[in-house]
Each structure stands twice: as structure tokens, then as C-alpha cells.
Amino acid sequence: MERSNQIQKVDYMAQAFHDRDGKIWIDGKIVDWRTANVHVLTHGLHYASSVFEGERCYSGNIFKDKEHSDRLIRSAQLIDMKMTLTSEQISAAKREVLEANGLKDAYIRPVAWRGSEQLGISAQATLTHVAIACWDWPSYFSPEMREKGISLQIGKWRAPMPDTAPTQSKAACLYTTHTMAKHAAEANGYTDALMLDYRGLVAEATGANIFVIKDGAIKTPIPDCFLNGLTRQTVIQLAKDLKLPIEEARITPEELKKADEIFLTGTAAEVTAVGKIDDTEYKVGDVTRLLRQTYEDHVRSKKAQAA
Fold first, then answer.
1. What residues pair up with 193 in beta bridges, in sequence order?
2. Residue 17 belongs to what domain range?
3. What was the pLDDT predicted at 143?
4. Residue 6 has pLDDT above 60, yes or no
5. In the predicted model, is pLDDT for residue 5 greater than 60?
6. What is the pLDDT of residues 102-132, one digit of tens each?
7. Residues 13, 117: one domain?
8. Residue 236 lies in a domain
9. In a shared domain, residues 112 and 214
């Protein structure tokens, strides 16, 4: 387990994101990858006033393209950051940067942030800047890890109350605790951390939603204080289409110990099995395998491309 984490870290270091070939769309222009920079006094850097998306393109089709573009705008609105681009303009920019990089299968990262026009708690004079990058990223986890299931450690940091943070925004400020929780989990030999919410109920992993299976029935936490992922929504609908029993419900940590299968969903993770949480181990079972394959088929289907 520790070896897998070490390999993953080395790969990240070998692919330093500031030093790559390619093109990035930034404020309406396609620029060389290495010159897509911002000033050190950018408001988004000092006060975490930025929002972002994670998307995948399959065979030239950006999965849930409009939904991701809409959510980027909504995320900005939730942190009182003005967006000058429309959803259609954001989607057009994504297609432009994919073409500039010659990619049809890719991970896409749009980000919007307050600029360096003003620095301080107040940001009334700042402009909102937008950049979109894309790169080849086949799978977040190795085939071996996907097959046996990743490991999670329950973290000490919790998802906040919805009236204390913009929990329905994909805002950078919400990910600081996730990074700390993931670092702690990796230090103990786990792949990722499982976050509880402010009530001590199961919430999410650091970058993915969680599903719990017991006796063939599927449960996933109610997203009232964390992001309702688009992959999560897709998998819920796929389960319903397959006539699998599924519900959104409160889930306690004690229930996890009794589960038969557990898996995560997210743009990067797609559908990834969990093989261990703390000291409790799980099998990669039939329901997880079915939904994983169904999701992989769906994102490449004509139905998804037409959506």
C-alpha cells in the first residue's frame, strides 16, 4: 500500500504542471502552457477566491459539458464572484483548448479566480479571470488499485455546516481540510481519507462521493453539506435504470463496518471500489463491478454524446 502511494507521488513530481508542452485557454486567448501564469498578488491566491471544475472528454465528447459549465458559474455566484462568461462561452472555450492540444480523450480543468486588481478582504474592484487546461489522464488509480479497491482512513476534519461555508460551490477554499486529511491518510499508508460531516455522519472522500452497499441495496449520503457530484448524480440514475434499490440516506460510521461493498464516484475517480476503511476490509463485489462497467459504457455511448 505504501509503495503504491510512493509511486503515485513520484509520478506527480515527474509531471510537474508548470513545465509541460501544450496550450492553455486563458481570458479568451490560447497561450503556451508555460506562459499561462498569474501575478503573485492575485486575490485568488491570497484569499482562496476561486472556483473550478474537473471534467472528462471521451472520444471527443465532454461528458456533462453544459452541467459542468453551469456549475462553474453557479459556484462563482455562491462566493459572490462575478462571472462575465456564459455557459455557452465556457463550453466553446473547452472545445477550443481540446482542439489546440489535439486531444479527444482528456481531463479538463476550468478555473475562475479573482485577479490582482485589488488585494484585501474586500474584492469589489477585482476582475474575474478564467483559464481552461486539458491533458491526457487515463485513470486516477492504477488498474491494480481499481481491481482490489483503494483504502480510506476516516479523517479528523469534517464537512462544515451549510451556513458556515459555501458547501454547494466547488470552491478552492473548501479543499484545504481535504488536502490535510489526505496527507494524514497517505502518511499512514492509506490511499485517501473519508470525511465525516459536522454531525459525525459519513460525507465524502476528499475528491469523490461515496456509495455503500448492503444486501444488494445501495445508499449514498444526502449532499446537504458537501458537493452533489455530477458523477454521483449519473450513477444514481444508472442504478435506477438497472432497477437496483438505491436511496439517499444518513449513514453512520458504524454502518460502514457492516457493508458488503463500498465504492467512490467522481470525474477523476469515475467508479472506484473501496477495499478498506480503517481496519475493515471489503470485497469488490458484483454491484460495484456492474455499476463501474455500466458507467464506463455510458460515458462513451451515443446517448451521452447527444446529451
1. 153
2. 8-135
3. 75
4. no
5. no
6. 999 999 999 999 999 999 999 999 999 999 9
7. yes
8. yes
9. no
Look up 170 and say whether it is catalytic: yes
Q: Does 232 fall in a domain?
A: yes
Query: Whole-structure pTM over 0.85, yes or no?
Result: yes
Judge if 28 and 162 occupy the same domain.
no
Please report where in the chains the cell 464572484 appears, as a residue: 81
Q: Are residues 63 and 205 in the same domain?
A: no
Give the pLDDT confidence of 165-190 residue by residue, as tens digits. Answer: 999 999 999 999 999 999 999 999 99
Residue 3: predicted pLDDT: 38
> Residues 8-29: pLDDT tens digits?
443 544 679 999 999 999 999 9
Q: Pick the catalytic residue: 64, 94, 170, 182?
A: 170
Cell of 50: 476561486
CA 182 to mean position of chain CA atoms: 14
Q: Residue 274 contacts by C-beta under 8 Å, 6 or more apart in sequence? A: 149, 150, 151, 152, 210, 262, 263, 264, 282
Q: Is residue 204 part of a domain?
A: yes
How many domains does the structure of the chain reveal?
2
Distance CA 101, CA 22 (A): 6
